[in-house]
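Below is a filled-in request sheet from our internal design queue. Each sheet records the structural input a requester submitted and the sequence that came back. We keep these sheets so that new team members can see what a complete request looks like end to end.

REQUESTER: design group, bay 2
PRIORITY: normal
MODE: inverse folding
CHAIN LENGTH: 251
BACKBONE (tokenized):
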């Protein structure tokens, strides 16, 4: 059985700020406070990404996305990410669901046109492609070619065994956005808190939280009798391996 050190739930106290105010409040540039970021056009800001995403989705979804940005930036601070990486987290959070409201057949068409090989489950559940297709469109329309941002967008639904810290944060922020049910978010916040009082640089344990998020998602899919993408199982087993290895080292 997995050991999850529970210290304290760190869920944000306040609800997400109104979308427009939030977009204006974070005018970080593509320079990431002085450092030029490869693959992010000069002048790209979180406000520009928000403005681009807004007309592509409903008001309700935009509120979700705003909440994801809020949690993502909070987690990036707790994980002690550099200003440049914090900007990448913010960009990926703003852009992650920009294709969420596309029809399944459109997503499948766009993925095929880009040469993606689709699995049987993706052919029958086109919505699973909204992350990878968003990454393709962001690259084309916003001229963002930064792999860290694009992979974080593409991986936000199913995860990956090769996730960067930025990608893990975006995945978790999407799980922890304020409108998600507490019985889903509370165990993830608790798992994140496992680094508290350990002296580690990052105040949060991303791998622990990812394992809990995967377990909860799998339980939900089983209960709802919905298909499970094999990648979800691979990703869950990957993080189980990491968490178990860390527990062995610590015991
Ligand atoms: Fe999504
Ligand atoms: Fe989302």
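RETURNED SEQUENCE:
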């Amino acid at each position: 059985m997995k050991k999850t050190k529970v210290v304290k739930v760190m869920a944000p106290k306040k609800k997400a700020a109104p979308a427009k105010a939030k977009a204006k409040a974070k005018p970080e540039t593509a320079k990431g406070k002085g450092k030029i970021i490869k693959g992010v056009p000069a002048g790209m800001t979180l406000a520009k990404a928000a403005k681009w995403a807004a007309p592509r989705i409903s008001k309700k979804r935009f509120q979700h996305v705003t909440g994801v940005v809020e949690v993502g930036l909070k987690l990036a601070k707790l994980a002690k990410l550099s200003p440049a990486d914090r900007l990448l987290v913010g960009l990926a959070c703003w852009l992650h669901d920009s294709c969420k409201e596309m029809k399944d057949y459109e997503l499948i068409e766009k993925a095929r046109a880009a040469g993606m090989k689709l699995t049987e489950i993706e052919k029958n559940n086109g919505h699973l492609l909204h992350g990878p297709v968003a990454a393709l469109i962001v690259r084309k329309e916003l001229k963002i070619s930064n792999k860290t941002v694009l992979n974080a967008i593409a991986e936000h639904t199913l995860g990956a065994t090769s996730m960067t810290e930025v990608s893990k944060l975006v995945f978790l922020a999407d799980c922890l956005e304020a409108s998600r049910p507490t019985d889903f978010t509370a165990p993830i916040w608790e798992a994140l808190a496992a680094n508290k009082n350990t002296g580690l640089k990052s105040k949060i344990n991303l791998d622990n939280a990812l394992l809990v998020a995967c377990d909860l998602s799998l339980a939900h899919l089983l209960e709802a009798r919905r298909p499970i993408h094999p990648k979800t199982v691979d990703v869950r087993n990957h993080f189980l391996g990491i968490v178990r290895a860390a527990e062995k080292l610590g015991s």
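SHEET NOTES:
- The pocket of fe (ii) ion (ligand 2) is lined by residues 64, 68, 96-97, 174 (CB under 6 Å).
- The chain is about 60% helix and 0% strand.
FILED BY: M.R.
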